[in-house]
Amino acid sequence: MEVLSGSEDMEDSCGSSSLTPLLEHDTENLGSNREGNTENESDNEEKEDPNGCYTEEIANEEDVSPIEQVALTVPTTDDPSLPVLTFRMWVLGLLSCAGLSFLNQFFSYRVEPLTITSVSAQIAVLPLGRFMAATLPETKFKVPGTKWKFCLNPGPFNVKEHVLITIFAGAGASPINAIHIVNIIKIFYKRNLDLYVALLIVLMSQVLGFGWAGIFRKHLVEPSTMWWPANLVQVSLFRTLHEKEERQRGGVTRIQFFLIALTCSFGYYLLPGYLSPLLTSFSWLCWMFPRSVIAQQVGSGLHGLGLGAVGLDWSTICSYLGSPLATPWFAVANVGVGFVLIMYVITPLTYWFGVYDARVFPMFSKDLFTSTGQIYNISSIVDSDLHLDEKAYEKYGQLHLSTFFVFSYSIAFAALSATVMHAVIFHGKDIWNLRIHTFKDRKMDVHSRLMRKYKAVPEWWFFIFLALTLTVTITVCEWFKDQLQLRWWGVLLSCGLAIFFTLPIGIIKATTDKSLGLNVISEYIFGYISPGRPVANICFKILSDITISQALTFLQDFKLGQYMKIPPRSMFMAQMIGTSVAALVYIGTAWWMIDNIPNLCNTAALPDNSPWVCPVDQVIYDASVIWGLIGPRRIFGSLGPYGAVNWSFLIGAIAPILAWLLQKMWPEKTWIKYINMPVLIGATSLMPPATAVNFTSWLIIGFIFSFVIYRYHKQWWQKHNYVLSAGLDAGLAFMGVLLYVCLGLENVSLEWWGTNLDGCPLASCPTAKNVSVENCPIFV
């Protein structure tokens, strides 16, 4: 709510100018940002542009962002007088946050999780904001007993309000992975978990990331080379929605193009979303060879290698990898090379040569198996305290994994060590320079310099907040150790891992838009320290890996605030409140769904083609069994069959060194510098639950837009690329919600061959001789 000066003789009208002067509450954001901020201000003269914004006279070419995509997309203007913390911002922001939190948790259980991004709210709130600006009273209201007055309507709905509303919405759109703790305990292990315990652990896991964000803000936000590619989609959309653009003869404006894209995406999603789900994975090889296990293993987009499989569905393309239109070409190329090597070279070779008895199991599966290829009965090896029953495990036999599942862990090991080594080799000097130089001594682009007008968030805010949340987290885990199984030392160890890995993982995310997880190594470490405790293992993973994910989300928002010139303290407030509201809504939605959807996540009891199969929760449950219940020593250690996988740590550490040597040996080969080993090695780290068709479709679209159009039609790309991505996201989200409200709630469905999701029923069959699996042919 916009707070005004307490002067008694103020006018009764808020005013309607789009350049409403900053009020007393916001003027504290202006002026000095840090000590020495006012130095050399005369070097760059401010001028007012025709649209009423202030722009800096760029002193030299070094002030321009070194990243071409940023220079082409982000405006170099600012209007500090625009009101930010307005009544309509709070109303629309909180509603957007709560709405997206409910919808994203609701749809997270689907076979292809439908993520409703903040772009949807970004579009939906614009007419609402303008309606409120046109109808709310402009009269000032006095707070009884004080000199304070406030105004519901400080003028036209402006872009900075819009950005903060989108930050609120982004808190609701970001997945809260601590919900998986609730799902695993209540759905898969069928054990008790109190609601208030679940709420506390979810909330603390969300806000712990603020501490890491504050620590690494100077390294991952302020440098211009840390450009966070995904932010450019929203920046482009904000400009489309708020800047006036003259229509060129024979062309369309950006807002017209956006509306066309939204309408087409909205109408088209009726096909894959309801009428013909087969378009989710168009696996034509399975149609040609309906009785061949091998052909279906190779051709299935959901259960095989996905050779030739294409998803004609934007949700398939974006479900796990994000928008390919927002990913730079070098990152797309690295993902493509890594995917081809792992999926089409390593996996089939190891499978057909029978490495680890691979042919006894499906080629691509996230399930857990016995030595004879049957699904492993986990409940038979769990005792009443949710610990491993060692005698029962010895009697039942070792747990086995599919070929690709084994190598997915190998990939995760290699990608993690490659990330650390890549950060040291390619960014170590920059990181050191950031530590030993002050802010005012470092070169800044025009965006960083414009932000000097606003007061920064002091670092001690982050440290105090980190200390408080860490104390509460330890208290919760100790007090309710019978439900969570995690002790105080586990909390401290998880935070230590998070601090160590946030910077290298953040560098990869900020420069490529690809994020590498800490989940496997955290499970691995804790599984060795404390085996036989699956819930403790999940909690440890959440508090290490997920807090990093949250920290990166906060840092990305800070960068968006820098691009759009939002006062940092206003950003901090929106992030804090939005994250807390999202946690409450997420846990409430999950609790309600668990109690009201029969057989949620139980694939054996659900009807055919049911959407509520929980692919992400299934993978996390399997991981809790592998790393927590049974323990890595019995699977990847001296007592297990997959010990050789540990060599992946060494391979990953060597790979960036090889890339660095190639650059030194052939400096004239400019393409070599774009080899990014963490992204290349970790290309398939999201598989499972991601499937081959997600990658094949994503790579095709990424090549077309990030390479062909960017290189040969740059003017079109600059004007329409990010706008197209936003329109496709929004249309998909709106139709997805509409389909569920109109048809899903009433269980209205169609039954014909086009409703078959993949059409490859034999892809999950083994090919070893004399292995008998239900609904599969026996090879003799």
Helix/strand/pairing category: mainly alpha
| Rg, alpha carbons | 27 Å
Separation of the first and last Cα atoms: 74 Å
Describe the main β-sheet briefly: 3 strands, antiparallel
Tell me the helix content.
55-70%
- The whole-number mean of residue pLDDT values reads 81
Task: Please tally the β strands and state the result.
Answer: 8
Helical run tally: 29
Q: Which band does the percent of strand residues land in?
A: under 5%
Shape: globular
Regarding quaternary structure, what we see is single chain
Low-confidence stretches: 1-13, 15-61, 435-442
Strands ordered across the widest β-sheet: 1-6-5
Provide the descriptors you would attach to this structure in a database record.
mainly alpha, disordered N terminus, 780 residues, 55% helix
